[in-house]
Amino acid sequence: MRIAFTPVDELGRVFERRAEPNTIHFEVQVPGSIDADRLRRAVREVLAAHPLLRARRHPAGPARRSYWEIAEHADLDPLAVCGGSIDAERERLFAEPVDLRNSPLMRLRLIKTPERDAVLLGAHHALFDGVSCLRLMRSIVAAYSGEPDPVPPIDPLTVRTATAPHEQQAGKPSHTPVAPHRTARIAGDTHSPGPGYGFALRVLDPEPTAALSAARWHGASVNDVLLAALFETVAAWNRRHASAHDRMTITMPLNARPAQHRLEFLGNLSRIVSIGVTDADRTDSRRLLDAITRQTDEAKRHANPRPAGLVGAVLGAGRLPYTLRRALLAAGRVAAGAVTDTTCLSNIGRIPGSFCFQGAGEIDRLWASPPAPMPRGLSVGATTYGGRLHLTVRHRHALLDTSAADEFATLLVSKVHSLAAEIAAVTEATGTTGAVA
User: What integer pLDDT is reported at residue 226 of this predicted model?
Assistant: First the structure.
């Protein structure tokens, strides 16, 4: 079976660079010990049950359109088992590219330590998004524990090319534009520049997570508050480093799966929008949140089913020769750096229920993050699981070193706390409430 690449798939392929593999990060941790052989059998069972997981790029010539082909069996065993530092193994995994010619387009690491075990998933962004990684991990956990893995009553290969009617309206913009001049970059701070990614992980306790969910202002969602906190963090960070921050934009993926199956389908089914603010929008928190909410509301109504902008449309055009699109990408990197979004926030949202590896304990930590190619160099992933908000600051070592990334993550958490507290105080004083999206 052959399946044509979507424009989103094409972008995931054309943006690949060996120094920054285009892979989604997904990670769970448990307080107990996961059996490696049992986990390997579970992974094989899931690969057999879900055809899309066995997809690989059809070996077409450079001037031909790209297709996925579904292999009868996976080409390789994606699971490796190791010990040592979880942090070191995480960096090692996400420094390794995933070859699109061999299925599955993911790598798994079971990391065993005396304190806890971790399962890391690195999945190529040409075929996976964050929600897809969540779905895959749920399937693996279910197979490991001998539990059923329900499949939606819709062909997932069909869903890949479908659009959500309530979110698609032709001719509507995918974001509210801001002033047409150079987009701010996050100020660099590194004493150890080099290839690869680093990760700064944070977890908010249940009380501040609940306070964040209750921080409503004119219908703002938790995601809107996180966007506002990230804008404030970048502005404060750049002020510390004497760098510009007037016009900032944040890439925001939207889940385009059917509403009734929001967390169920494999594949890269995200739609990308851009949220922008200026210094004038940040004169106070409420004005900032209002500016963000207007844009996210519009984006949810009119999300573009294709890559945003002329650059995305050209590079995602599967009928243009791949070699031509790579040449265009290389020629346009300097110009694109002026308008590429400042950073990215990928929020999977609240993950219902809980899940565990039978005998190893319930999963108590769950992080995810999107790639952060230069010139962006930094992205933030968010999940809410078990009543706790999990934040990942993923950064290129070329932009921030480990110490600077930890400082940035601490500043972000502080901004989330302070913004939620400020909105809660205003809400209580004025009696203003709104629905959380």
Answer: 96
Give the whole-angstrom CA distance, residue 302 versus residue 304: 6
- Distance between CA 42 and CA 139 in Å, rounded? 9
* Phi and psi at residue 71, to the nearest 5°: -75, 150
Q: Return the higher-pLDDT residue of 366 and 168.
A: 366
Question: How would you classify the pairing of strands 2-4 and 23-30?
Answer: unpaired
* Paired tokens of 411: 């500043």
Residue type, 245: H
Give the angle subtended at the CA of 186 by the CAs of 182 and 189, to the nearest 5°: 140
Q: Judge whether residue 60 has pLDDT over 70.
A: no
> Where do the domains of the chain lie?
2-430
Residue 118, H or E segment: strand 117-124
pLDDT of res. 61:
60
**CA 341-214-383 angle, 5° bins:** 50
Question: Coil, strand or helix: which one is 248?
Answer: strand
pLDDT tens-digit series, residues 69-101: 999 999 999 999 999 999 999 999 999 999 999
Structural tokens at position 201: 């992980």
Average pLDDT over residues 371-385: 94
> What per-residue string of b and e applies to 235-256 under the rule 16 or more CB within 10 Å gives b?
bbbbeeeebebbbbbbbbbbbb
pTM above the 0.85 mark? yes
Q: Which helix (H) or strand (E) holds 361?
A: strand 361-362
Taking Cα atoms as reference points, which of 105, 49, 46 lies closest to residue 75?
105
Confidence label for 434 from pLDDT (cuts 50, 70 and 90) = very low
Residue 51's closest CA among 36, 30, 73?
73
119 contact partners, CB below 8 Å, separation of at least 6: 27, 28, 29, 34, 39, 108, 109, 110, 111, 137, 140
In the CATH hierarchy, which top-level class contains the domain 2-430?
Answer: alpha beta
